[in-house]
Design brief:
Layout: H1 5-26, E1 31-35, H2 42-53, H3 61-65, H4 67-70, H5 73-76, E2 82-89, E3 105-108, H6 117-136, E4 140-143, H7 151-157, E5 162-163, E6 169-170, E7 178-185, H8 204-208, H9 226-231, H10 239-245, E8 248-250, H11 254-257, E9 282-283, H12 284-288, H13 292-298, H14 309-323, H15 329-335, H16 341-354, H17 357-368, H18 374-381
Parallel strand pairs: 3-8
Antiparallel strand pairs: 1-2, 2-7, 3-9, 4-7, 5-6
Helix pairs in contact: 1-6, 14-16, 15-16, 16-17, 16-18
Length: about 375
């Protein structure tokens, strides 16, 4: 029996999908799915526009600048006929919320404790995409959070999970602990079915948020989010959120960690992405003492490095203030003379939280005699 040309093409595309799926698993990815850009819902772009219009993106101007290309996959690349979405598990060894009670230690978000996932995933994805294209043809583009792509809606459409009420992807196999990447291709591979929303009536992620950053389910206000405030925000942490920071010095995992679907989560076995086996929060005094060279050396190859030493130690000094520990008094005095204005400003706030009224008044007088930066002076005079 003769097989038609169209049937041959369908079989070849099915083989191409089976190939990329098998090769993705062999390359170390934990899940893979296929989305059809033509079926991408317009509502995702509408929601993005609403968030920008309401200012919920904060200082992330790049979101507004790229909104037109971000609202739909084909707005980024009109020739794309398939998006292969890849998921990488980065599940922690223990519940990160446990570390929040150790107020003399600085808590870094789980995703940032190992190597930068952008670098690890992109290398693997490029190799995978090249192998795929050399065998089946077509043009390809690879993206790992480096282009205006809405990976989470695409992952939902590709059947990898659903966007929870905390706006992050939830996987039935890995809970909330997944990195995402996308390979765009001009080949029309068979698409997978979208995953159903399994949040139901649960609202644990909304209720646990220390700064009430969710005005409604499935809606995040970055301006109130500790992940945004400790990583993306360029200026000082607003006073209203400082005590809520606790000892979180880079990111926040609260809404991820409480998700009930994490009961199916597994510790990442990927040595390049998983946190080191000695994953112990570092003492605040040790982190506050890092100069620029020591900061760059300590966090080389991790997401923490991109925030820069000034903003990182700024966060540490807020955590120092939240420790309320008198043993940190000497550190606060030292950091109040730091070379970085935001560190000095955060130290002024920490001094009010830790020192006795008399000690604070003495330090304030000594520092204001030498301080010229208006930001720092405002903190001392608040």
């Amino acid at each position: 029996m003769l097989i038609s040309t169209s049937e041959n093409q369908r079989l070849e595309l099915s083989r191409a999908k089976a190939f990329v799926t098998a090769e993705a698993k062999a390359a170390g990815f934990d899940d893979v799915g296929v989305a059809d850009p033509a079926a991408f819902a317009e509502e995702h772009g509408t929601r993005l526009e609403a968030a920008i219009r309401e200012g919920r993106h904060g200082d992330m101007g790049w979101l507004a600048d790229t909104a037109d290309r971000r609202r739909h996959p084909n707005a980024l690349w009109g020739e794309a006929r398939t998006v292969v979405v890849l998921a990488q598990n980065y599940g922690p060894a223990h519940d990160p919320l446990v570390d929040l009670s150790r107020t003399d230690r600085g808590v870094v978000s789980v995703y940032a404790r190992g190597r930068d996932y952008h670098d690890v995933m992109k290398g693997r994805m490029k190799t995978l995409a090249q192998r795929f294209a050399s065998r089946f043809g077509g043009d390809i583009k690879v993206f790992v959070d480096t282009a205006p792509v809405m990976e989470k809606p695409l992952a939902h459409q590709a059947g990898l999970g659903w966007q929870g009420k905390h706006t992050n992807l939830v996987s039935r196999s890995f809970g909330s602990w997944v990195f995402l990447g996308a390979i765009f291709t001009t080949l029309a591979l068979p698409a997978d079915k979208p995953h159903a929303d399994r949040c139901g009536g649960c609202r644990r992620c909304l209720d646990v948020c220390p700064t009430k950053a969710f005005p409604a389910p499935y809606k995040l206000d970055a301006r109130r989010c500790l992940a945004y405030l400790t990583i993306e925000a360029k200026g000082m942490i607003p006073k209203e959120f400082r005590r809520a920071m606790g000892n979180r010095i880079f990111g926040c995992d609260d809404c991820l960690a409480v998700c009930p679907w994490n009961k199916f989560a597994k510790r990442s076995q990927d040595m390049k992405i998983a946190p080191p086996s000695s994953d112990e929060p570092a003492p605040l005094e040790e982190l506050a003492s890092l100069d620029d060279a020591a900061f760059r050396k300590r966090f080389a190859g991790t997401p923490v490095k991109r925030v820069g030493r000034e903003r990182f130690v700024r966060n540490v000094m807020v955590a120092v203030g939240n420790s309320r520990s008198p043993t940190m008094a000497t550190l606060v005095a030292q950091k109040s003379a730091d070379e970085a204005p935001q560190v000095r400003a955060a130290s002024a706030w920490a001094a009010k939280e830790i020192l006795s009224p008399a000690a604070f008044a003495a330090l304030r007088t000594a520092r204001l005699d030498k301080e010229q930066d208006p930001l720092v002076r405002r903190e001392w005079n608040a």
